[in-house]
Amino acid sequence: MSIDTLPPLRQVIETHALAAKKALGQNFLLDLNLTAKIARLSGRNEDHDVLEIGPGPGGLTRGLLAEGARHVLAIEKDARCLPALAEIEAAYPGRLTVMQGDALDIDPLAHLTPPIRVAANLPYNVGTELLVRWLTPKDWPPFWDSLTLMFQREVAQRITARPGSKAYGRLAILAQWRTEARIVLNLPPEAFSPPPKVSSAVVHLAALPEPRFPADAKMLQHVTATAFNQRRKMLRSSLKGLAPDIEDHLRAADIKPTDRAEQIDVERFCALARSLSA
Ligand code: SAM
């Protein structure tokens, strides 16, 4: 059973000759039951505007609208997708706005009314950069309540990783410092057309009203980037360029100078950032 009266996605792709382009990270979801499920994982959106990056032929867009999103703003780089998206706009009058362009260059805020959620099957080449931008705005709370994002599974694991694990690093710390982040769905390559080489996962990140621990965002980013750049080294050596008395700062944050970055939890990284900012 279809979720709407529009043609099946395979037919949409054929009608509009949307052969997938690798350079644009195009791996499309064709199962509308699955896209509706991802839409539901983003929450009940009757009272929310939803920002979607990279709608492509519109599978997730249709899921979001069919599940009741108040309004969807979809930003797509590939102009070939516009006619297919126009058909969805016509089926849901006044509820979908499509902008063509690069999501890294467009400021969507003028076109969105709070409260806002973000839901996307992200192009793999810009996904991490967009996530880092969404996690590091000047002010907190950010413009969004939650992010529901498809990533390569390995990236999803880096976002939700705990201290001591191989995947733990800057991304985990940025995400877990001021959101509740968890993997809510795992998908095999065959869920996509064409199938990518790796598995994927949907991550749900809910913005906390305040960061878990106080710290200056820029300093925290700087410290974690420096620490994990040489993750095998002891912190007294990987961080020695940050301050001449780095061992004192480490001890002030309850960190042993001989510890390695992956042993340090978010709380102590925040304490270190505070000590270095003081
Ligand atoms: N949402 C669709 C789905 O789930 O089937 C398509 C997902 S596909 C993984 C990624 C989409 O992002 C493609 O449609 C691609 O053209 C688009 N895209 C790639 N880079 C982009 C960028 N910088 N800004 C906006 N869209 C982009």
State the order of secondary-structure elements, H for helix, E for strand: HEHEHEHEEHEHHEEEHHHH
Report strand order across the widest sheet.
Answer: 4-3-2-5-6-9-7
* General shape: elongated
User: Which segments are poorly predicted (pLDDT under 50) over 5 or more consecutive residues?
Assistant: none
Q: How many individual helices?
A: 11
Radius of gyration: 21 Å
Q: Percent helix among the residues? A: 25-40%
Strand percentage, roughly? Answer: 15-25%
Number of strands: 9
Q: Look at the structure and give the mean pLDDT.
A: 96
Major sheet characteristics: 7 strands, mixed
Ligand roster? S-adenosylmethionine
Q: Distance between the terminal alpha carbons, to the nearest Å?
A: 60 Å
Give the class from helix and strand content and strand pairing: alpha/beta
